[in-house]
Every structure is written in C-alpha cells, then in structure tokens.
Amino acid sequence: MSLIDKVPGDLRLYIGGIFTLRRREALQKAGITHVLSVLRFQPDPQLFSTFKHMVIEVDDVEDENLLEHFPATNQFIQEGLDGGGGVLVHCAMGKSRSATCVIAYLMQKHSISASAALSYIRQARSICEPNEGFMKQLELYGQMHTPENVEDTPAYQRWIYQREVELSRACGQAPEAEKIRFEDLHVTEKPADYELRCRKCRRPLATSQYLIAHGSKSPDDAQNSIDPTVRPSQTCAHYFLDPLSWMRSELEQGKLDGRLECPKCHTNVGKYAWQGMQCSCSEWVVPGISLSKGRIDKVRMGTSVAEIRRPPGAAIPSPSPSQTRQNL
C-alpha cells in the first residue's frame, strides 16, 4: 500500500489519503484530472488549482448519511473517466469514507455486491474498511439496485424514517408528527396474502405486507407458530406492524406510548411504544406498534371467512358423512 493506490482493472481510478494531495509528481504521473474529497476540511485552493474538485463533507461515523451522496459521487467519477483523465478519491486515511464512495461506484458500474467491491479494491489497498454504518448503507444501495435518484426510492425514505425514530428514541421522545411515515400511503410492491380485521366490527385494519418480522423469523413464522412443542409463553400474542394512516390521530399526539382503537367501533385493538416493546416470544421490537391477536381476525385475501385459531396440537375435525353428502 502507498499514499495513492490504483483500483484494479482498466479504470484510471485511484484511492488515497489526504497526504496524497502533496504528492504532485505522483498525481501528474497518474494523470489525475479529478479529485473527490470525502471529509470535512477547508481545502487549500492552490492544491486543487489544476484539478476539477468535488467535496463531500461527511465525518467517518456510523450514523453519517453518505448514501444520499452516491449518485453525485458516481456521476463525478464517471465524468472524469469519460473525459480520459484519472480520478482520485480520498478521505483522511484512504480507509473508510473514500473506500465507501469507490465501492458505490463499482457496484453501479459492474452490478456487483458491496462485499465483492470491497474485496476488489482491497487487492490494491488492503486497509480499506468502511465503518459498519457505511457498509449497511452500501448493502441497502445494492438492494435498491443502485438507482440514479436515491431520495425518491421508497427503501431510502423508509430508512430515513427509521433513523428519525431511532434519534427520537435516543432522546427519550416520540418522533415529530410530520416525520412519521404511514406505510399505506406509499406504493408497495409486496402482495398481500391476508388482512387483519377488528373482531368486533369487522373493519379491516392492516394487510400482511405491513407486518414486521422480529428476530430471525418471517412474520408468519414469528407471529403464528402453532408448533405443539412451543410453550404458550414463547408464542407471539401480537401482530407487529408499520404505522398506518388510521393510527394518525393517536401517533401524532407526541406520546411515547398509548393504545390503539379501531377507528370504526373504538374498541381497543392494540398498543404502541416508540421506545420499543417486548413480544411474548421474548423478542424486542423497536418501535413497537402492535395489534392484539385476541381482538383481531385474520382473513385470507379473496375470502370472507376468518381463519379459526385452535390450540397447539389440535387436529382439524373430519366432516361427518351427512356433511360430506350435502357437499356433493
């Protein structure tokens, strides 16, 4: 490893630390025409007089939002390469912030994963290691299919909302009303398998795509276990879900916790706690927004009959001969 390292391959793309800028001969030899600085500093105009320069002012901390800058940094790098020049991406040490931006570019350029891109640049610069927060942002960027416009992507908007909730939680407060994201007001590509209805008035309250899995289980596995070997205390007594628009009047009051009422019959159907809630299966869900299974019917989409719940291990009764004849 040196002060400036070339990313493997045919691209004239380089990565380094801030002291690289003092190596004028090395920069000229590499044919550097564009410099991307990914750190907070006051640049010396003389250092960049011969380069096209772009600065992204971010700190090397896990909660810094570098994801929002990927489209701009990718475009800057591509413009430099398309112009026939060389591009240097640097931060303080050439380890985390600069590596993150180079990885984001390689992900979009070659349609590869964040881990594959990291392994690729480590061939040239072994110290490259984005902090954990930046790696999660890169993974999300890959899940979003490296879009040209990040901020209009639902996955990014949801991520921003989750950051706001976490910040509020750290301050011991409920999130500001205008920052609460009601998922049913946004487009979702997930199909709904079933809906949840108020048991008293039959008013639909949620569909399956708004349920939240907790632990390492899927929503159905985590919340609908009927395994006879599982003790009752380990099964989930609630459906955990995203904020939905019918909850608006309650969630926008600024309270840390409270109860949820059916908007039609005003029956208490659940509760919420922005600080988190422990499920009966012992998992913590943050934030905790839940509907009580004892007050909800689960209805498969396309049917009008609620699913009947039976005790663990209970067998489904066989139809009598007379019932069988009537159905023929």
Q: What does the model show?
A:
With 328 residues, this protein is of the alpha+beta class. It folds into two domains: 4-143, Protein-Tyrosine Phosphatase, Chain A (Alpha-Beta Complex), CATH 3.90.190; 185-300, Metal Binding Protein, Guanine Nucleotide Exchange Factor, Chain A (Beta Complex). Helix content is 27%, strand content 19%. The chain has helices spanning 24-30, 70-82, 97-110, 114-122, 132-143, 154-170, 219-223, 248-251, 321-327, and strands at 4-6, 13-16, 32-38, 52-56, 86-90, 194-198, 204-207, 238-240, 257-261, 268-273, 277-278, 284-285, 288-292, 296-300. The strands form four sheets. The chain has a five-stranded mixed β-sheet with strand order 1-2-5-3-4. A four-stranded antiparallel β-sheet has the order 8-13-10-9, with no helix packed on it. Strands 7-6-14 form a three-stranded antiparallel β-sheet, with no helix packed on it. A hairpin with a 5-residue loop joins strand 6 (194-198) and strand 7. Helix 2 (70-82) crosses helix 3 (97-110), helix 3 (97-110) packs across helix 4 and helix 3 packs parallel to helix 5. The longest helix is centred in the middle third of the chain and has 17 residues, at 154-170. The radius of gyration is 27 Å and the shape is elongated. It starts with a strand and ends with a helix.
